[in-house]
Amino acid sequence: MKNQLSRRSLLGRISAVAAGALAAPVAKAAKAVTQKLLVSSDAPKGYDPTQHEWVMAIDANRCIGCGLCAEACKKENHVPAPPDYPPCYFRTWVERYIITEPKPGSGAARGETLVDSPNGGINGYPEAPVPKEEIQHSFFVPKLCNLCQHSPCTQVCPVGATFDAPDGAVLIDPTYCIGCGFCIQACPYGCRFLSPVTKTAEKCTLCYHRITRGLKPACVEVCPTQARIFGDLKHPVPDDPIQQFYQNNLVEALKPHLGTEPRVFYAGIDKEVR
Amino acid sequence: MTNEITNIVQVVMPHFEGYVYPNEATRQPLWGILIVLYPYITGLVAGAFIMASLVRVFNVKALEPVYRLSMLTAFAFLLCAPLPLLFHLGHPERCFEVMMTPHLTSPMAIFGFVYAWYLMAVLLLELWFDYRRDFVEWSETTPGFKGMLYRLFTVGVTDVSEAAVRLDHKTGHVLSIVGIPSAFLLHGYVGFIFGSIKANPWWGNVLMPIIFIMSAMVSGIALCVFNYMVLTWIRRKTVDMKCLDAMGMFLFYALVVDTAIEGLDWIHRIYSAEEGFRVIQYMAREKLFYTLSLGQVTFGTLVPLILLGLLQLIRRRVPELQRRRMYFGSACLILTGVLAMRWNVVIGGQLFSKSLRGVMGYKMEFAGLEGWFMGAALLCLPFVILTVFVKLFHSERLPSK
To answer: Which entry of A192, A256, B86, B207 is 20 to 30 Å from B388 by CA?
Structure first.
């Protein structure tokens, strides 16, 4: 009798462990479903994220540093901005690079590299800190989330609030984020910030509410020189600008040595761009 | 409006040199003093526990007088370890999501489980088995509320027969053996939280977990020396010199290994001189001069290394009072040095831009969540808890008896 009882309790325990093991994938699946729901909650009904592959590309040769993209992004996405908040919250910004001529007799190929992005480039740039004759190169580089294939920010999130959507966007569930800031530390490109309003992490979503309705991201829409190119790799259109960009340019990704495999490619940038 | 009238500047914009990404140009680093304290306190726990394990597992008889104090120290500090983490969250009310729906590739998520395991399965249980016999005795002799507490702590298990006590001891031994890798795991994981950030050349380092474990052991033993000496002073008793010498010896050897590994880390950084090296060099020379070169290296490591090393060589020729002073001084210096090390890792890692083109300044505020006041309060809290524990659980019984 005693034996039977202990056997029963043993069986009970085994089934409890099995139930636990079974519950894990169920929980995981439930989470995936929630995320998919969440993706579609910001998107219109019927939007299927698996049918798209959104990417952005930057042609730095075309960028004139007008800063309209950074400003449009702030307005479109209600990104905290001055005067209510300090100028340290950006989903996208434009950097100005000035590479000076080498000092005569220094034996160097180039001088020093000066970079700035006052208020993300929204209000323009101050006069170059060196005289015109001493500038070897000067160019602008728009920055945004690099849509990494192996995104370190997604990897380190302790609750899975940030996730890779099936259509290539890296999104954050603001109702789930605990605001620990780990993803902000993990992003090599400085593309994330902790919002002073929501106390959660925020970043570029490629204007998810727009692209899922067939519109372009705000920054792409307002760019006067088409330095920002946006497209869907799964649905190429005739004369697709994104396909043309890949065909016509040798491209670079930022910080390739980190193995994050960015999907945002750049054309016309210098080795000094990080 | 008020600002215009009173002319009070509320926000002093930080000072930057070079170029920092716009999102990095915040007034304060994202992780402030609270995240400095988190690895510091966790390290003290791991170190104090390993110190206690020397008695339990490795049978170092000389350390028996500090066994219980080390265990209580580990417990008091462990209770406070997650507090700084919790307070710094943007949404502390969602903290349980870390345990309920953990993201398994995140070092921070797994820490929750390691912490729970260490608290519930190792420390709490081992302490209970250690104190069970005392609880039973005290519950019979102590009247009033305190007696009731002791009765509560026995959880109804009042069997103190020789066989039962032997079983307690055996279980405690097993738990202690399980506890050593758990303590390593606990603090190694804290190191991994920083070591896993490849975006940051100051943090992303394979040696980080090992550096954290070793410095944790050093700081934990130093804390036990500190607590033991302060406690005997408060109790107006004499310090057991054999015990103190043994602690000093272990402290010295742990410090030697710690210094060697941290030195190795620097040699590797200097020799390989990777992309971020120039900015790291600048940090070490300029921004972190006081906390790194002076606080961590000179006063936190070299001076105690010399003091403790001397004591290993010429212990017999140094009078007792002098020895006690040297041990106490070394312990205090090490405790400060390891705190400086945590500061250098956490704050230092955020004082330069990930563009590797600029550095930020940082002035810690006095009040506020990430201020001096909060930091001091959080650092004092475990000592307050420890005082209560020591008052409640004071026992002269040695673990081997």
So the answer is: B86
